[in-house]
Each structure stands twice: as structure tokens, then as C-alpha cells.
């Protein structure tokens, strides 16, 4: 398996001259293999967005290294590495550069000097992948938040990236918008095996990942499969995070004397257990 | 009020004029502006007027809409017309009412200047009505390209223009939202003394600036992440296509100029 | 203070080629002291409706009654200000309205505009800053030095310091993390309970509507299509789906459970606690029979 990303003891502070300054990211390490989907979760201010910025070289750590596609990230290889990555930010309006949908998707291609004929093909293809191909000439003010985020994803995909970073890409959207975006990402991952890092405070979203990294106070609080991480239950709630619906319900049922299997995370599995328990009475 | 404004507004369509390349339209309008000053007698002015009408017809923009939207300019034209009528005292006396004297030359000059003014306004309006702002920007960028040799930042300027255009609706929306939020907090912009009114704008402007800066910062980061590092080595997605229409339009203009040259007195 | 909309219609940019009908024939009553939730798909007219609740928009047709005051097309701008003192609105992303040098001044802005004396305005501001759980010393800070979550609280304090009779909330927790979201929503609920404050929540979250509201208004394509208590609104998921709306997760889980267990549809469980109690009750009945 190819290693896409590797963080080693990364430390970063926004106030390097202040000896008492707090480290926004304080000694974080983890690796990511090609094709993996990692969710980085934590409450606002836990250091998760700083981590995202370190991964794409918008910030450089004071200590430790960020490795991308096998090499450490440096000022010299920054642009070359970036041309293999895509990143989608929180605010749908503030990352829409082009005058229309197709101009926006082409932006990164123009920057990377892709020839015109190739560009038109890639723009079409990328928009088809996010199901926005019938909106080529739409202007951003006539799109919903979810549609703008899908265009932003298409803009990243057009570059054929090896790694896609979503920095709270769904947090400003309404439920429909959030669902649209998540469905697109799930679909992409299934069809293309794209490696995805999703920074989020939505634990339902984290549930879809292969691996979850929980951040708190700039440090890695926990890491593992969603199953492993969510079993920590109350320790996560104490960090200001919210457990998935099925787990919250299980614990309420426990208080009522109905005991389901610990670590049941999906509603489907929970309801099946309840049916069985019920018929065995 | 704003809805009826014609200046700077783009009305999508697919007429002959709409389908022209922005470069040919820009060149056309620039040459036309210069050519207008060739006219100096009745025939040549009539030709200018006829040609302008012909261009409007070719653009399929409703004349009623154009005239309706140009009302503020009409006032200006009428004003210059009157100025010429009353202050030119050459030629035969045509009409006298008390101290008001109208001379033949004054009337003639008034009409000429008004036509000159009118065709200039109509033609430039036609450019913006039939060309999206972003196409105008593209056209300008290509036309100004030679200036890069003297280190003029053509690409940066065009990018700035296109981003500003892109964010105008967003910021208008934002202004409306902030205005309403402050109104809901009892802010009152429409009454009070001048000083009070100026003070009442602060709660609107500060948040607007804060948000514009935040947007600019976010946008800069998003552009950097997407590999933007200046105009060097960039390719263009928006391709401009010069076809027979563009050549035809410029040839017609050339013919008109030649005719003007021979018709002028 | 009761609020009622009678045959209200609203058209944007009326009389121009760009006119757009946003509301028509809206008849809504919001009883004094209620906690009402307005739900509807994006573009259903929710936010246009909201702006009628304190005279930010005047109806193009019909009448809006706010307490004893009436707002119609003819109402003058000056007559609207007293209404705005009684009806406070917390807009979506309210932190975008902050502008003063200090948090204290910003929170005092509303009360001062409505003629509250300096001393009293300051006392109120300090009280609400504390009530919103902002750390000590926040009052003297610049609002722009605070974290996003804190800015949100300051903005909310700025509306509450006006001490309105009616509080309108437009997606007040959008973009906050789960803990922050719950704290803010619980605070609004407490205010509603303790001060009998009429509260109107405009939301996309069916869970919040189910948990907090006692009355609901469903908007679709510019008009009100259903009004009633949440038990009634959420009882019929298919009807809501026609308006492109869902039910809270508790209800969808409950329906799934009922279907698999061969049970008839019970009254919808509006909170997770209610759902757990419902399931426990079914177990106690010795459901194994089916």
C-alpha cells in the first residue's frame, strides 16, 4: 500500500515568539494509506483546521514533518505537491473564483497550464461526477450552498488529485445540502477509490470513514475505526462532541433496562437487535 | 428605479451583435467613437444616426427599453441642446421672443451636438447590453496584452475585475442582510440630523468591511490551494473566437467611415 | 403578544420585469407565550415571512398584526420602530452584525437605539453577557478578538438586551459544534419558560422543532400549508415528504421499528427520551406475541 500522507510529531503555534504561547497543533502523528477515508473530528478550536492547513502547506510546522506522497513537504516541492491535492473549504461563497460554474472548475486547470482541449474534457467530466453537468453556465448567486460545494469538489477533482481534503465542507449547509455533498463523496469513493480526509464536527459523517482521528486541545485524543473510537462514549461527549443517534438511543434504552450490544452505531443494526430482543421475550 | 437602469446592464440574447467576439465589439466601439467626430454636416450626421439605428436593430434590443433607460442622459442631451441654441449667435435670426434670440447656426449646432451625444451613448450602451461583463474583461485582457511588454499588469487587472464582478451580487446581498439586522436592533438611517445619519452608517459599514476582508482572505487561500501563482504559465479556459461576423462588422464600420469621409463638408 | 398574519402576500420588485412573488395568502397565528417553529424547504418563503414579523418588510397585500399594531402596505416607516423594540430577531450568522469597539458597546447598541438610558443599558448588557456564559472580562474586549462561538453569543446578547416580548430565531445555531448548539438552544428554551417569552424558531432541523416547539407552521411554495402541534405535524411522514420535508430521526426510527415489529403507528416520539420510553413501554407489554 502506498503511503499518501504521514504526519510525524507535528507541532505548530500561531505565536512562535511567545514562550507561553499555546500550540494549536501539539505533537500529532498519523499515517494515511492510498484509498483510505479518514475523518478528523473535534470541537471548534481543537486544532483540526490548523492540521488541514499544515497538510497542504498553507502553514509549515515549527517541529516535526508533514510527508506527502512519500516525500517531506518543503517550500521547494510545495506547488508540485499541491497540484496533486484538492481542498474544499467551509464557506461555499468564498471559494468560488470563476464567473460561472465551468469557469470555476477550470480555475485550477488554468493555473497548472493544462491545454484548452484537455480542459474542456476535464471540466465536463468533473462536473458529471458531482452531478452538476447541467449547470455549466450558472452564476454562483443562483446556486444553493450544496450546489456550490459540489462545484468546489468538481474544481478539485478536475486536477485528478490523489488526495482530497474537506475542511468542514458541510458545516455551513442545510440538511439537504449536507446530504447532497456526502452522497457525492460516498459515490466518488466507491467508484474511484479517492483518498479523502474530512475535517468535521459531525460525528454522523465521521461514521462513514475508515478511520477517525479525534482532536482535542491540539493533541490527538483518540484514533481508530469509528467502532473503536465511539466506544469511548462519554469521554467524547465530555469533549463537546456528539455521539451517533443509535448510540445515544442505546444508552437511553440501557437506562430503561433494555440492553443492546455495545458499539451499535447504525440505526439499522439497532432496530434489528430490538426486533430480535422483542420477539425473544 | 434601479431596475430600469440601462447603464452597465447585460441582457443575454443571441442576436448578431450578441454573438460578436468581445474584442471586435470593443475595437468597433473605440473606432466608432473617433469616427463620430468626422461628421460635420447634415448628411454625415444623418448617416451616423442611421448607422446607429441599424446597429440597434441588429442587436434585437428593444428600442423602447433603450430610450426608457436613457432618460437621465436625455436630460443631459436636452440641456446641451438648449445651451447651444441660446449661446450661439451666428447665422440668420430665426426666432425672437423678448431677449431670447435663436439663430440658424445655433439650432444647427444644437442638433448636431445632440446627435453626436446620442449616438455615443447608444453605441456604448449597446456594447454593455450585449456583452457580459466577464466577456468585456476577457476582451480587454487580450487587447491590452501588448502592454505586458512595458510591465503593465494586464492579467492581474483582468483577474481583479472579474473577481470584483463575481462578488458584487454577494456583497449586495450581504449589505441587505446587515442593514436588516441593524434595523431590527433599532438603527435608523432614514431620519435625524446629517450627523446622526452619518453615524448611523457606521454599524453598516464596519461589518461590511470586516466581511469583505474575511472573504478576500478566504478567497486568497482558496486560490493559492488551487495552484494560483500569477499569470505566468497559465492557460486560458475562456477562448475568444473571431469569425466571419467580426470581420463583417468591422468591414461595415470601415465602409461607414469611408462614406463619412466623402460626405463631410 | 399575539402575532397574526391575515391574507398576507409579498412580491419582490413589484412592477418591474424582475418581480417575484414570494408569499401569497398566508394566514398564520402565533399565540402569545408559545414556542412556534416555522419549517419549510429552501425557497418556501420562510425568510420572507420572518421579515414580516417585525416590520422589516411590509406586506404587499393583507395585514400583519403585532400586538395592537397593524402593519399594511400603507404603514409609514416611523411607525415600525416601536414594533422592532417588541420583536427581536436573531438572524442567521448574527456575528456578522457586530461593529463596535467593545463587546459592551455592541450589546448596548440595541437598547440605546430604543431609548433605554445609558446606565440601564449598561446594566442590561453586563447581565446578558454573563447570562450567555461569556468569560469574565469579555465586555471590555473587541468583539473581533473573540472566537466564532463567542462572537455568536455576543450577537445574541445584543438582541436579548433589548428585552423584547417576542424573540424570532433564524437558524441560530448554524455552523456551531454540537455542544455549542445544545447550549444555545437550551438557553432559548429556558428564557421561553422562565420569562414566558413568545419564541419563533425558523429552522431546517426537524429535531429542534420537535424538541422545543409547541406549535408548528409549515411553509411550502410561498404559503402556509399546515399548522398545528408537532405531534400532529410529524404524525404523517408522507405528507411532509410531498413538501420536501422530513421527520425527526426519532420518528423515522420509530416508524422503522413499528413496521418490522408489525405494530400500528403510534403517536410520534418527539425526543430521544420519548422514543426510549415508547420502546420500553412496548417491551413491557411483552411484545413477543407478534
Automatic annotation (TrEMBL), chain A:
KW Cell membrane (keyword) present: yes
Source superkingdom: Bacteria
SUPFAM superfamilies assigned to the protein according to its UniProt record, in alphabetical order: P-loop containing nucleoside triphosphate hydrolases (SSF52540)
Record-linked CDD domains: ABC_cobalt_CbiO_domain1 (cd03225)
GO molecular function ontology, one term from the record: ATP binding
ABC transporter domain boundaries: 5-242
PANTHER family: ENERGY-COUPLING FACTOR TRANSPORTER ATP-BINDING PROTEIN ECFA1, HEAVY METAL TRANSPORTER
Matching NCBIfam families: ECF_ATPase_1, PRK13635.1, PRK13648.1
Compartment(s): Cell membrane
Family of this protein: Belongs to the ABC transporter superfamily.
Protein name: Energy-coupling factor transporter ATPase
UniProt-listed Gene3D superfamilies: P-loop containing nucleotide triphosphate hydrolases (3.40.50.300)
Gene name of the encoded protein: cbiO
Entry keyword set: ATP-binding, Cell membrane, Membrane, Nucleotide-binding, Translocase, Transport
Alphabetized Pfam families for the sequence: ABC_tran
The keyword Translocase belongs to this UniProt entry's keyword annotation: yes
Membrane topology of the entry: Peripheral membrane protein
Entry's Gene Ontology cellular component terms: ATP-binding cassette (ABC) transporter complex
From TrEMBL, chain B:
Principal subcellular localization: membrane
Cited Pfam families: CbiQ
Transmembrane segment boundaries: 26-51, 63-87, 107-129, 244-263
Domain of life, per lineage: Bacteria
GO cellular component: plasma membrane
Compartmental location: Cell membrane
Binding partners and assembly: Forms a stable energy-coupling factor (ECF) transporter complex composed of 2 membrane-embedded substrate-binding proteins (S component), 2 ATP-binding proteins (A component) and 2 transmembrane proteins (T component).
Protein name: Energy-coupling factor transporter transmembrane protein EcfT
Automatic annotation (TrEMBL), chain C:
Keywords noted in UniProt: ATP-binding, Cell membrane, Membrane, Nucleotide-binding, Translocase, Transport
Listed EC numbers: 7.-.-.-
The protein's name: Energy-coupling factor transporter ATP-binding protein EcfA2
GO CC list: ATP-binding cassette (ABC) transporter complex
Record's subunit section: Forms a stable energy-coupling factor (ECF) transporter complex composed of 2 membrane-embedded substrate-binding proteins (S component), 2 ATP-binding proteins (A component) and 2 transmembrane proteins (T component).
Source species: Bhargavaea cecembensis
TM region positions: none
Membrane topology: Peripheral membrane protein
Gene name of this polypeptide: cbiO
Keyword field contains Ligase: no
UniProt keyword Nucleotide-binding present: yes
Function noted in UniProt: ATP-binding (A) component of a common energy-coupling factor (ECF) ABC-transporter complex.
Subcellular location: Cell membrane
Residue intervals of the ABC transporter domain: 3-246
Family note: Belongs to the ABC transporter superfamily. Energy-coupling factor EcfA family.
Example GO molecular function: ATP hydrolysis activity
Annotated NCBIfam families: ECF_ATPase_2, PRK13634.1
Amino acid at each position: 500500500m502506498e503511503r499518501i500522507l504521514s504526519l510525524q510529531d507535528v507541532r505548530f503555534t500561531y505565536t512562535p515568539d511567545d514562550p507561553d504561547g499555546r500550540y494549536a497543533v501539539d505533537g500529532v502523528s498519523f499515517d494515511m494509506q492510498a484509498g483510505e477515508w479518514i475523518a478528523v473530528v473535534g470541537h471548534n478550536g481543537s486544532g483540526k483546521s490548523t492540521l488541514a492547513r499544515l497538510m497542504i502547506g498553507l502553514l509549515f510546522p515549527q517541529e516535526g514533518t508533514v510527508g506527502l506522497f512519500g516525500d517531506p513537504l518543503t517550500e521547494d516541492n510545495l506547488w508540485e505537491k499541491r497540484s496533486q491535492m484538492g481542498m474544499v473549504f467551509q464557506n461555499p461563497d468564498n471559494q468560488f473564483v470563476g464567473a460561472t460554474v465551468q469557469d470555476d472548475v477550470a480555475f485550477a486547470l488554468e493555473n497548472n497550464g493544462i491545454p484548452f482541449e484537455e480542459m474542456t474534457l476535464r471540466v465536463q467530466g468533473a462536473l458529471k461526477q458531482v452531478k452538476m453537468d447541467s449547470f455549466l453556465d450558472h452564476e454562483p448567486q443562483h446556486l444553493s450552498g450544496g450546489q456550490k460545494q459540489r462545484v468546489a469538489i468538481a474544481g478539485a477533482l478536475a486536477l485528478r488529485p490523489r488526495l482530497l481534503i474537506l475542511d468542514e465542507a458541510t458545516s455551513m449547509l442545510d440538511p439537504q445540502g449536507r446530504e447532497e455533498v456526502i452522497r457525492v463523496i460516498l459515490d466518488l469513493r466507491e467508484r474511484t477509490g479517492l483518498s479523502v480526509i474530512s475535517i468535521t464536527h459531525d460525528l454522523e459523517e465521521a461514521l462513514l470513514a475508515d478511520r477517525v482521528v479525534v482532536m482535542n486541545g491540539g493533541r490527538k485524543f483518540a484514533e481508530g475505526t469509528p467502532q473503536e473510537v465511539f466506544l469511548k462514549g462519554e469521554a467524547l461527549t465530555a469533549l463537546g462532541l456528539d455521539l451517533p443517534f443509535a448510540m445515544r438511543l442505546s444508552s437511553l434504552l440501557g437506562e430503561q433496562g433494555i440492553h443492546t450490544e455495545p458499539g451499535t452505531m447504525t440505526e439499522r443494526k439497532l432496530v434489528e437487535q430490538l426486533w430480535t430482543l422483542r420477539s425473544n421475550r | 428605479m434601479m431596475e430600469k437602469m440601462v447603464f452597465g446592464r447585460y441582457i443575454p440574447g443571441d442576436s448578431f451583435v450578441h454573438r460578436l467576439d468581445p474584442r471586435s465589439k470593443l475595437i468597433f466601439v473605440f473606432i466608432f467613437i473617433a469616427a463620430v467626430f468626422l461628421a460635420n454636416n447634415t448628411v454625415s450626421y444623418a448617416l451616423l444616426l442611421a448607422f446607429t439605428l441599424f446597429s440597434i436593430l441588429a442587436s434585437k434590443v428593444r428600442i423602447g427599453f433603450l430610450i426608457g433607460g436613457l432618460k437621465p442622459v436625455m436630460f443631459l442631451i436636452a440641456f446641451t441642446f438648449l445651451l447651444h441654441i441660446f449661446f450661439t449667435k451666428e447665422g440668420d435670426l430665426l426666432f425672437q421672443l423678448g431677449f431670447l434670440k435663436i439663430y440658424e447656426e445655433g439650432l444647427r449646432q444644437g442638433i448636431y451636438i445632440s446627435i453626436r451625444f446620442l449616438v455615443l451613448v447608444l453605441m456604448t450602451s449597446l456594447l454593455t447590453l450585449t456583452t457580459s461583463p466577464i466577456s468585456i474583461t476577457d476582451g480587454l485582457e487580450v487587447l491590452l496584452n501588448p502592454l505586458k511588454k512595458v510591465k503593465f499588469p494586464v492579467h492581474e487587472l483582468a483577474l481583479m475585475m472579474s473577481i470584483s464582478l463575481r462578488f458584487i451580487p454577494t456583497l449586495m446581498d450581504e449589505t441587505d442582510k446587515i442593514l436588516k439586522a441593524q434595523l431590527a436592533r433599532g438603527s435608523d438611517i432614514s431620519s435625524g440630523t446629517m450627523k446622526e445619519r452619518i453615524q448611523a452608517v457606521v454599524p453598516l459599514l464596519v461589518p461590511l468591511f470586516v466581511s469583505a476582508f474575511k472573504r478576500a482572505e478566504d478567497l486568497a487561500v482558496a486560490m493559492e490551494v488551487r495552484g494560483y501563482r500569477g499569470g505566468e504559465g497559465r492557460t486560458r479556459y475562456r477562448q475568444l473566437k473571431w469569425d466571419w461576423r467580426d470581420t463583417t462588422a468591422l468591414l461595415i464600420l470601415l465602409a461607414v467611415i469611408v462614406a463619412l469621409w466623402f460626405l463631410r463638408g | 403578544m399575539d402575532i397574526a398574519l391575515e391574507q398576507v402576500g409579498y412580491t419582490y420588485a413589484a412592477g418591474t420585469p424582475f418581480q417575484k412573488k414570494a408569499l401569497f395568502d398566508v394566514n398564520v397565528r402565533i399565540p402569545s407565550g408559545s414556542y412556534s417553529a416555522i419549517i419549510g424547504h429552501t425557497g418556501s418563503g420562510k425568510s420572507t415571512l420572518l421579515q414580516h414579523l417585525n416590520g422589516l418588510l411590509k406586506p404587499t397585500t393583507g395585514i400583519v398584526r403585532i400586538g395592537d399594531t397593524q402593519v399594511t402596505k400603507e404603514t409609514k416607516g416611523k411607525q415600525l420602530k416601536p414594533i422592532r423594540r417588541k420583536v427581536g430577531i436573531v438572524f442567521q450568522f448574527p456575528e456578522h452584525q457586530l461593529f463596535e469597539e467593545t463587546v459592551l458597546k455592541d450589546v448596548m447598541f440595541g437598547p440605546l437605539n430604543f431609548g433605554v438610558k445609558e446606565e440601564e443599558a449598561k446594566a442590561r448588557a453586563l447581565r446578558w453577557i454573563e447570562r450567555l456564559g461569556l468569560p469574565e472580562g469579555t465586555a471590555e474586549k473587541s468583539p473581533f478578538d473573540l472566537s466564532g462561538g463567542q462572537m455568536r453569543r455576543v450577537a445574541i446578547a445584543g438582541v436579548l438586551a433589548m428585552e423584547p416580548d417576542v424573540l424570532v430565531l433564524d437558524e441560530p445555531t448554524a455552523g456551531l459544534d454540537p455542544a455549542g448548539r445544545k447550549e444555545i438552544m437550551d438557553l432559548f428554551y429556558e428564557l421561553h419558560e422562565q420569562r414566558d417569552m413568545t419564541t419563533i424558531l425558523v429552522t431546517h432541523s426537524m429535531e429542534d422543532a420537535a424538541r422545543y416547539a409547541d406549535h408548528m407552521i409549515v411553509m411550502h411554495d410561498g404559503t402556509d400549508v399546515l399548522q398545528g402541534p408537532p405531534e400532529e405535524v410529524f404524525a404523517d411522514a408522507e405528507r411532509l415528504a410531498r413538501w420536501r420535508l422530513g421527520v425527526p430521526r426519532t420518528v423515522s426510527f420509530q416508524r422503522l421499528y413499528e413496521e418490522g415489529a408489525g405494530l400500528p403507528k403510534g403517536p410520534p416520539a418527539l425526543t430521544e427520551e420519548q422514543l426510549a420510553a415508547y420502546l420500553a413501554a412496548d417491551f413491557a407489554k411483552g411484545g413477543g406475541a407478534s
